[in-house]
Specification:
The protein has 18 helices and 14 strands. The N and C termini lie far apart (about 60 Å). The protein is α/β, with parallel strands linked by helices and about 425 residues long. Helix 18 (about 415-420) links the parallel strand 13 (about 405-410) and strand 14. The structure holds uridine-5'-diphosphate-glucuronic acid. Uridine-5'-diphosphate-glucuronic acid (UGA) binds next to helix 9 and helix 11.
Length: about 425
């Protein structure tokens, strides 16, 4: 099929490359000429394992192209809207500016009978509004939320747990079945829903994941007050298949471009719909999440004797999670900046995210290697659990620091190994010795 993909950020670039990989003819459209030039040259403008290979293969096949010219969408049978919906500067609500600009740009080029498919995460009700906007041109609208995780984007796109589509006709359902034929043949289930349900599936999935993380982090707070160990507690409750062990990693909590802004936008939308009470608990989920950040700063302060001023603090990790260079709402950088505000000399290392971190927090100091960051440190903080840090030899790190205090804010290091190498090890939600 001939497809257009409007917006070639994280979601759109991955979707465009993967759809071409499935055999479709795809044009990716973005307003940013630098992004378009990079993608057209086979370069992914962010770190995503496996995506450069898929992009390059798709370009070589001749089925994938990129442009800034939205008129290139004319002739496509299906148009995917993949632009971002960040949090508004002044409120919890989603900023829908990019979505409506994309729609307005597409209206003159979406032929009668073509299908406009929303993939962006949006407030419930958006699809219906969009359908009304395209009604005159005769293009139809469908909703097809995306569940890909950064760091696993290709795998999640080509082998998703499920496909969810919100459609208003059997014909539109059939069109999407043709787009995803290869996945359906592989046995991926497709759930067919109305617009509102399809939109809500996405935000409620992210709200549930955020709630699970904050639940275990709330247990962390109780563990800290009682000398219990949250990692064992999570392992034990996770063995009950009704609870499940995934997304129960206690630590510094969730960040990134999705979970934090999605739960806030969901609360804002619920308020507009008059059901704000239904989601009041998400405010608590958000607050538990923020408290882990301040608790980590408290632990660093305690480790250096009560005052951070002029203490040297090594921070391992800047990305919001490993295998990503994304620093949007990164818990690690939030903590690093808070330590700096209290007068500490903060030295940050991250295997991939330092360029992005520097753009946001130019006042922090960045080291080229994990060991360089740790040199002469009074306390070392693990804030993003990259494999490189988990595998590092604590004895080698002990050689370069001033004081052997480590705070493992992701509960990813082996306390036995670190203590054996002479370190005072503290994990979030774990007993101190
Ligand atoms: C999340 C969802 O997992 C995807 O399904 C969804 O498609 C995506 O948002 C989106 O809306 O686009 P992502 O933001 O890539 O994906 O990251 P996650 O893997 O969900 O991690 C989010 C945050 O939670 C990270 O900061 C991570 O460190 C933290 N986390 C995760 C925990 O603190 N504990 C856990 O047990 C799991």
């Amino acid at each position: 099929m001939r497809l257009s993909v409007i917006g070639t950020g994280y979601l759109g670039a991955t979707h465009a490359a993967c759809m071409a990989q499935l055999g479709h003819e795809v044009v990716g459209i973005d307003a940013d000429p630098a992004k378009v030039a990079a993608l057209a040259a086979g370069q992914v403008p962010f770190f995503e394992p496996g995506l450069p290979e898929v992009l390059q293969q798709a370009l070589a096949s001749g089925r994938l192209s990129f442009t800034t010219d939205v008129s290139a969408a004319a002739g496509a049978e299906v148009h995917f809207i993949c632009v971002g919906t960040p949090q508004r500067a002044s409120s919890y609500a989603a900023d829908m500016g990019q979505v409506w600009s994309a729609v307005e740009a597409l209206v003159p080029h979406a032929a009668a009978g073509s299908l406009v498919v929303g993939k962006s995460t949006v407030p419930v009700g958006t699809a219906a509004q969009m359908r009304d906007r395209f009604a005159q041109s005769g293009a139809h609208v469908a909703w097809n939320p995306e569940f890909l995780r950064e760091g696993h984007a290709v795998q999640d796109t080509l082998h998703p747990d499920r496909l969810v589509i919100g459609v208003e006709s059997a014909e539109d359902e059939q069109t999407l079945r043709t787009v995803y034929r290869a996945l359906l043949d592989d046995g991926v289930p497709m759930l067919v829903a109305d617009f509102a349900t399809a939109e809500l599936v996405k935000v409620s999935a992210n709200a549930f994941l955020a709630t699970k993380i904050s639940f275990i982090n709330a247990m962390s707070e109780v563990c800290e007050a009682t000398g219990a160990d949250v990692t064992l507690l999570a392992e034990a409750i996770g063995m009950d298949p009704r609870i499940g062990s995934s997304f129960l990693r206690a630590g510094l909590g969730f960040g990134g471009g999705c979970l934090p802004k999605d739960i806030r936008a969901f609360m804002a939308r619920a308020g507009e719909l008059g059901v704000d009470q239904a989601l009041t608990f998400l405010r608590e989920v958000d607050e538990i999440n923020q408290r882990r950040r301040s608790r980590t700063v408290d632990m660093a302060r305690e480790a250096v004797g009560g005052r951070l001023r002029d203490k040297r603090v090594a921070v391992w990790g800047a990305a919001f999670k490993p295998d990503s260079d994304d620093v949007r709402d990164s818990p690690a950088l939030h903590v690093a900046a808070a330590l700096h505000t209290e007068g500490a000399d903060v030295i940050v290392h991250d295997p991939r995210a330092m360029d992005n971190a520097r753009e946001l927090f130019s006042h922090l100091v960045y080291a080229d290697t994990a060991l360089d960051a740790a040199r002469d440190a009074d306390v070392l903080l693990l804030l993003t659990e990259w494999r490189d840090y988990v595998d590092i030899d604590p004895a080698a790190v002990a050689e370069v620091v001033t004081e052997r205090h480590v705070i493992d804010a992701r509960n990813a290091l082996d306390p036995v190994r670190w203590r054996a190498a002479g370190w005072t090890y503290r994990g979030l939600g774990r007993p101190s010795a």
